[in-house]
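User: Structure please.
Assistant: Input sequence and predicted structure:
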Amino acid sequence: MSLISRTSGVRFLLAALTVSASGAVFAQPEASDSSIVINGVKTAGPEIKGVIAARNGEKIKVVAADGTATIVGVNDATQVRTGGGLFSAHNKLAADSLLNGLPVTVKTSRMGDAQSGELVADRITFRNSDLKTATMIRNGTNQRFEEQTAATENLRGHLGDIDKYNIKSTTEVHFDTGKTELSAQDKAQLCNTASQAQAQENALLLVVGYTDATGSDEYNQQLSEKRAGRVINYLQQQCGWKPYRMLTPTGMAKADPAAPNDTPEGKAMNRRVAVNVLVSKSVDGL
């Protein structure tokens, strides 16, 4: 098993999230070094602290407080430690405990190339209280799954051609150079937008991140995606916006500037995330 640590010209896609977790085995004693050596090459990896955001087979995505996502693999030697003891990674309790939303600390090794090799978890630790909270969230989500699925299918049934939307409103929040943090004013504005959109039964949100022209194209692409991800996380976690009513976020880097990039004022306007409230033309006005 492995664990691994994310208005024209915009393409709209429906967001989907699939998470699964399974596995069982026997507990193993703690070893002094549980890393697996692949092809004789193993180097120490970073210690990663964050929240499990997704899991796919033997990989998990861990998202840090600054929005950085890391994919980490979990293998047979990975140890999972809680307040109650130490387990092998394919102990059933350990496998079932690696839930979305669980804050973890992951000690890793890098297999293969010292710079670009795959990260594999040597040890994953978390608190029992955090596991209890994550389990409650998971159970609550399971109980609401059928209700949300029905709502999603009903919404999709009305959408028809997904490229044909009316934009009902657009809210923008702005960022400092190179930053992804939201101000208190931005947070209040986002929740106000979500509250107003919630009143429209068929409304969806499309979140698009942008940068100014400072920095390389690759850097700006990653930065615009992180900004969009930060806004989506806040909308869902703090403003109560349902994930199934969110379209896939887009990072547009320095494309479609709101103002010229040759002045500080223009650059400030371009460092933004736009939250678009959309309604399919097929149902708008119903």
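Confidence is low (pLDDT under 50) at residues 1-38, 85-92, 140-145, 154-162.
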